[in-house]
Amino acid sequence: MQTLTIDFIMSLDGYGAAEGWPGWWGLEGPEYLKWLEDLPEQDHPILMGATTYRVMSELTAGGEEGTDVLNGVQKYVFSSTLEEPLTWQNSTLIREDAVEFVRRLKEESDRPLRTLGSVSLCRSLLVAGLVDRYRVVVFPVITGATGQERIFDGYPDVRLDLVEARTFDRRSQLLEYMPTVLDRPPLG
């Protein structure tokens, strides 16, 4: 069975995006972009929802630095609102239940899987016990006034065991964990 890694970028206060801020909050830096370029999982299939698909396909079409590597990667897009054909190359529209599809894909895929953004999709996959790794890059900004897409709202309690940590460009933090969804708080 293949593994599934959830990938998020976020502000220090837990937002996945912010109105009026550029991609990566304008703080992507050369070390971070090099890490993205050198990721061994660059060719691993990506799971995403409709909102992430719309945003990322527009960024890629607009030439946003660091996004062109996604063009050649297989993308599974879970949506009931998008219509075929999807215009971003190597994108497959999935209308069936995401949890069941991903459970089957983990068994059938010849490569590990990963997500890109997609807050509610990732929450569903985590609750279903399908997530093996949880990786976030925390950018050094607080976007309390303009932040959008609070990543962890609606999540269950989860214990995270750190497996990797790294600093990029003396400002952004990579944190990679193995998650365990808890039935109740430890003292409950």
From TrEMBL:
Top-level taxonomy: Bacteria, Bacillati, Actinomycetota, Actinomycetes, Micrococcales
GO molecular function annotations of the record: 5-amino-6-(5-phosphoribosylamino)uracil reductase activity
Record-annotated Bacterial bifunctional deaminase-reductase C-terminal domain positions: 3-171
The protein, known as: Dihydrofolate reductase
Name of a matching Pfam family: RibD_C
Source organism of the structure: Microbacterium kyungheense
Signal sequence coordinates: none
Gene3D superfamilies hit by this protein: Dihydrofolate Reductase, subunit A
GO biological process: riboflavin biosynthetic process
